[in-house]
Specification:
Number of strands: 2
Strand content: under 5%
Largest sheet: 2 strands, antiparallel
Helix content: 40-55%
Radius of gyration: 17 Å
Distance between the termini: 41 Å
Shape: globular
Number of helices: 8
Order of helices and strands: HHHHEEHHHH
Number of domains: 1
C-alpha cells in the first residue's frame, strides 16, 4: 500500500522535532502569559510549523541550503533559530507580557527580530513595511517566519566570505564575524537536528502535498 504524502504529514515531521526540543509538558514557567494547557501548546506548535513550512517551501522564498531537501532543511534551520531565540513560548509568540519581547523590548516574535519601534530593515517593499507589532500573534506567524528567513538569508549572503558555520553572525550579532557563538550554535543545531530527523520526502513532494491541500478555485458565472 502506497502512502500519499499530505500536508499534515509534512507539518508533523517538523512538529516532532519541536516537541523534543521544548516539550510543553515540561514547561513550568513563572510567567502567567507563557502558561497554557499542553493540548493548546501542541496545537500552537502545529501552527508554528505550518507557518514556517509555508514560507520555506514557497519557490519565491530564499533557501539557506541547496539540494533536493534544501527547503525542508531551511524550515528546520528557521525552527532551530526560533527555539534558541524564544523556546516557542506563548508570550513571545503572541507578543504579550513584560517578557514577551527580548532585548529590553526591542526584539519581536518567535525569531526575536530586533526592530525596536522601527520596521524590518530591508528594501523588500512588503517585508519592509512591517513593524514588530505586525510579526506577533497566531495570525502573523507566517510574517514572523518570512521576515526571519529574509534576514537569515541576508546574513548568509553578507557573510559568505566566512566559513559556512559563521554566516549567521550578522543575524545574531549585527556584524559578520568568525566564531560568533550564537550564530555558530544555531546553525550547527539546525544541521544536526535535520540529520537526526531527515524526512523521507523531498522538497518537490512536500510542495505538491502543500498544493493538494489548498481548495481548488471554483469559477461562478
Amino acid at each position: 500500500m502506497v502512502t500519499i504524502l499530505t500536508k499534515s504529514i509534512v507539518v508533523s515531521w517538523l512538529v516532532a522535532s519541536m516537541l523534543k526540543w521544548a516539550p510543553p509538558e515540561h514547561r513550568n514557567s513563572f510567567l502567567v502569559e507563557a502558561k497554557e494547557p499542553v493540548a493548546e501548546a501542541r496545537m500552537r506548535y502545529e501552527q508554528i510549523a505550518e507557518g514556517f513550512l509555508d514560507v520555506a517551501l514557497n519557490e519565491n522564498a530564499p533557501r539557506l541550503v541547496g539540494g533536493a531537501q534544501g527547503r525542508l532543511q531551511t524550515a528546520m534551520l528557521m525552527a532551530g533559530v526560533a527555539f534558541f531565540e524564544s523556546g516557542f513560548r506563548r508570550d513571545v509568540h503572541l507578543g504579550i507580557g513584560k517578557l514577551g519581547r527580548g532585548d529590553n523590548g526591542r526584539s519581536w516574535c518567535l525569531m526575536q527580530i530586533n526592530l525596536g519601534k522601527g520596521k524590518v530593515p530591508t528594501k523588500d517593499p512588503l517585508i519592509g513595511s512591517w513593524f514588530g507589532s505586525d510579526l506577533v500573534g497566531l495570525d502573523n506567524t507566517s510574517k514572523c517566519a518570512k521576515a526571519g528567513l529574509h534576514l537569515m538569508s541576508r546574513s548568509m549572503q553578507a557573510c559568505r566570505a566566512l566559513p559556512w558555520q559563521d554566516r549567521l553572525s550578522a543575524y545574531t550579532s549585527g556584524i559578520c564575524q568568525e566564531n560568533e557563538h550564537k550564530g555558530v550554535a544555531r546553525l550547527r543545531f539546525g544541521v544536526l537536528q535535520f540529520n537526526r530527523n531527515r524526512p523521507t520526502f523531498t522538497d518537490k513532494q512536500a510542495q505538491e502535498a502543500w498544493r493538494r491541500s489548498k481548495p481548488e478555485d471554483v469559477s461562478t458565472n
